[in-house]
Shikimate O-hydroxycinnamoyltransferase-like
Amino acid sequence: MVTKGEFTVTVSRKEAVAAAVPLPEYWLPFSNMDLILPPVNAGCFFWYKKTELDNNNNFASFVGVLKKSLAEVLLLYYALAGEIMFNSVGEPELLCNNRGVEFVEAYANVELRELDLHNPDESIKGKFMPQINFGVLSVQATELKCGGIVVACNSDHRIVDLYSINLFLISWTEIAQSKPISSPPCFRRSLLNPKRRHSIDPTVDAMYVPISKLPPRPTEPQQANDDHNISRIYYVTNDKINEINALASANGSKRTKFESFSAYLWKMVAKCYGSNKEKVSKMEKVQGFLGTVVTEDHFVGLIDRIETHRPEPILSKMYINGSDDGPTFFVSSGKGLETSKVDFGWGKPMIGSCYFPLEDNAGYVMPIPNPIGNGDWVVYMHLLKKQLDFIEAEASDVFTPLTFEYLN
């Protein structure tokens, strides 16, 4: 039993769900792109409202469908049933031993309309989002007092990124509904082999640093108690997204909605720091910055640079705690998380979002399309409290706190 806030989540069962058919044990080496990531977990969750069509079903039957289809989809996504070990030179590798995925069943004595969806640190963390006690993936299904259901997944980000979790979820739901698999996974590591190039894109060295050259971690917290990273979830309407996009494209240069949103957000953070010009976000010309890194040459060069440093890993400078370059945060497109397709047989979710509270000073932002397809975005933001408070005050017409009323 876990008690937090104003409601209690009671865990009734935990078990390891393995692939339906035993698989031979073998090792799957990390690709160079896998090696660049620190050991952090990334979560996603989906809220399902009880409907009239559900009256003949109960939570136990839903869980039965989830576990049976999970065991079957792990035959395709066998890597997710394994666990991470270290080889003789200290590099992580994935042992595909079919240890399984921890599946948690729980009950929350709260209704969906009573949850503080805007503050996932209060309503998600330690309640609906499972811990990873073993392996690389854990799942929790929680029944609410109103009959609604929350399905949450927590995964090791070194193994599962947004693209792969989306493929996995869609395959899982297709099996749950006895449909053919539309997009089977690919585990061809050779696609990411280093090319041993003599010339490496200089932007790689500008963005990444070997672990041995990281500055020492501060022994004392550098931030005041009221200026720490927290998570909040907002919605941004389609009208506001189009308005921001039109402003960014006013000079005749076509910008994507994601580029326009990122530029708008970076400007808000810069404005938050006012006259402190040495400590503001410098990412003002988003398209120009993206143009240097969203290329094949950049990623091939990154793969090659990692190879030259192995077995010592390199890390993105944005992860560095206590950086003097000002506030740092990642903005990741959640367009690839097709929440409207995460339907296990009882309808599409009311809402879907991620939960990715990075440690230290690095922030994280991910906009995800609303599953009802009206063009709105659900935006998960993990930033300094000072930044979020400023954004809410300065741009309240854009970033609206997510509430149950909006979901209806």
In short: The radius of gyration is 22 Å.
